[in-house]
Amino acid sequence: MKMRFLSLVGNSFGCSASGERLVSAARDGDLQEAKALLDYNPRLVRYSTFGVRNSPLHYAAAQGHHEIVALLIESGVDINLRNYRGQTALMQACQYGHWEVVQTLIIYKANIHKADYLNGGTALHLAALNGHSQCIRLLLADYIPSIPTFCSILRKQLKNEDSIAEFDEDALYQVINRAADGGITALHMAALNGHSETVQLLLDLGASVSDITVEDGTTIDLIGAGSTPLHYAACGGNAQCCQLLIARGASLTTENGNGWSPLMVARSWNRDWLEEILSSLPEGQPQLQLSPYICLPLMSIINIARQCGWKGCDAHNACVDPCVVCLERKCTVAAEGCFHEFCTHCALYLCSTNHTSAVAHGPPGSIACPLCRHGIISFVKLKDTRPIVKEIMRTSLSHSFCACSGDSPEIASLETPFCKPDSHCVHITPLGSSFRSLSCQRFPSMRLSPSLCMGSPDTSPSLVPRTVDCDVREHLVRCSRLSFRRSTSQTEGRSWFCSFNQCVATESSC
C-alpha cells in the first residue's frame, strides 16, 4: 500500500512537471516542444496552472501563437475552458488583439457569448476596450452575411427579405449592445478610450447611442450612472469619437445620475477642446463613410474553412495551378464576381487584414481583389473542393489521475475526479443549487483521494467545477457572480477600467 501511494505521488509530480513544460512551450511559441509533449501524453492538454488556473490554451492565445492554439484544440482541449476569472482563450486573444488566434478560435466555433465572473464582460467588450476592430469583426462573422445589399439593409434603405435566412438583425443588435455589469456596452468602452475606428464599426453595425449605465453597487463608475456613450467619449477626450456619436443621433442634453450633460463631463475632466463640439449640433447633415471592416466576406470564407479546412495542402503537382498569393497551396475558393481563385488560407488572410474601402466595383467596406481590384463580397467553393471529415481527439480523463510512467495501466473510462472511486452517483451542490447527478465508474485498485494529485482541480465554491456540464456551469456562475465579485479585492475590481485609469492619470486633482 505504501509503495502504491508513492507511485501515485510520483506520477502526480511527473504530470505537473510535464504540464509546466507544455505551458512554457505554449507561452514561448515552441510548436515542436508542444507536439512532442502531447504525443507523449495527450492528457496534458487539460493541465492548468496553480492559482490563476490558466491552461496552455490561455497562454498560447494571450501570446498570439495561433499554430499552437490549433494544435491544442485538435488535441482535445475544451475550447471554452475558463481560468479563475472566468476568462476564455477567446477573451484573452481579443484583449491583446491577436486576430489570427481569434480567427482560429472562431473557425473552431468558440463561444463568443461567455462572460467573465468579475464584471460580466465578453470577448466583444475586451476587444472594444483596446480598440481591436479586426477582432470585433471576426467575432461577428456568424452574424453578418456575405451579401451585396448588407449596407443598404443596415441603413434601412432595404428591408431584410425573408430570403436572407442567414441574417438575423435582432440577434446582431443584441450581441452588439449586450451590457456588462453596470450597463456598460462595448460602445461605452471604445468611446471612453478614444478608439474612433472601433466606434465607427460598432455604430455601423447597429450599436445604440442611447444605452445608459446603471448603478449596481459593484462596478466602479467615476462618471456616474445613467451615462450614455457620449458621456464616456467626453470623459475620454477624443473629438472624433464625440463627432461620430453626435452624427449618429447622440443627445447633447441627456443628463446622467449626477446631473451632468456630456459637456459638463468634459469640463469636469478638463477636456477644454470639446467645448465647441459638445455645445451645439453641427450645421447640415454630415457625410458619414462606412467602416472598412463592415462588408468583409468573412461569413462565406469561414463556413468554407469549417467544412473543407483552411490549412490546405501544398500544390506539388505541376498540373495544379497554385494560389497566386502564396504560390504554395492548391486553389480551393473563388471570389464571387471576378472569379479569381485563391486558397482558403490566403482568402482568410485577405479578409482579416483589409484596412481600406477603396475598390473598383463593389460596396464600401468590401475587400479588393489583389489581381483586379474588384470588390469581393463573397467566396464560393471550387467544384473539386471537398469537405473533410476530421474527428478531433477527445479525452475524458482528468489530468489528476494521468499516469505518466509506463508501469501503471492507462484507464480510459474515468469521467470525473470529483466522485469517490466506489460511488455510483453523487450530487454536487457547493452553493445550494440543484445539479444533475454526475455518474462515474470505478477506478480499480485505488482508493486514494484525488486531491492528493498535484493536478487536481480547485473545488472552491467560488469557482466552477470544470466537470459540471455547460448548462449547470452557467447557472452556477449566475448564482455566484455577485458574491464572488464582492469577495474580490479592489485591485481586481479596478482592472476593468485599466485603460480609463491610464487616460486620466494626469487628472489626479479631479
TrEMBL record:
<keyword id="KW-0677">Repeat</keyword>
<keyword id="KW-0862">Zinc</keyword>
<comment type="pathway">
    <text>Protein modification; protein ubiquitination.</text>
</comment>
<keyword id="KW-0833">Ubl conjugation pathway</keyword>
<protein>
    <recommendedName>
        <fullName>RING-type E3 ubiquitin transferase</fullName>
        <ecNumber>2.3.2.27</ecNumber>
    </recommendedName>
</protein>
<keyword id="KW-0863">Zinc-finger</keyword>
<feature type="domain" description="RING-type">
    <location>
        <begin position="323"/>
        <end position="373"/>
    </location>
</feature>
<dbReference type="InterPro" id="IPR056760">
    <property type="entry name" value="RING_XB3-like"/>
</dbReference>
<dbReference type="Pfam" id="PF00023">
    <property type="entry name" value="Ank"/>
</dbReference>
<keyword id="KW-0808">Transferase</keyword>
<dbReference type="InterPro" id="IPR017907">
    <property type="entry name" value="Znf_RING_CS"/>
</dbReference>
<dbReference type="InterPro" id="IPR050663">
    <property type="entry name" value="Ankyrin-SOCS_Box"/>
</dbReference>
<dbReference type="GO" id="GO:0008270">
    <property type="term" value="F:zinc ion binding"/>
</dbReference>
<feature type="repeat" description="ANK">
    <location>
        <begin position="182"/>
        <end position="214"/>
    </location>
</feature>
<dbReference type="InterPro" id="IPR002110">
    <property type="entry name" value="Ankyrin_rpt"/>
</dbReference>
<dbReference type="InterPro" id="IPR001841">
    <property type="entry name" value="Znf_RING"/>
</dbReference>
<dbReference type="Pfam" id="PF24921">
    <property type="entry name" value="RING_XB3-XBAT31"/>
</dbReference>
<feature type="repeat" description="ANK">
    <location>
        <begin position="52"/>
        <end position="84"/>
    </location>
</feature>
<dbReference type="Pfam" id="PF12796">
    <property type="entry name" value="Ank_2"/>
</dbReference>
<dbReference type="InterPro" id="IPR036770">
    <property type="entry name" value="Ankyrin_rpt-contain_sf"/>
</dbReference>
<feature type="repeat" description="ANK">
    <location>
        <begin position="225"/>
        <end position="257"/>
    </location>
</feature>
<feature type="repeat" description="ANK">
    <location>
        <begin position="85"/>
        <end position="117"/>
    </location>
</feature>
<dbReference type="GO" id="GO:0061630">
    <property type="term" value="F:ubiquitin protein ligase activity"/>
</dbReference>
<keyword id="KW-0040">ANK repeat</keyword>
<keyword id="KW-0479">Metal-binding</keyword>
<feature type="repeat" description="ANK">
    <location>
        <begin position="119"/>
        <end position="140"/>
    </location>
</feature>
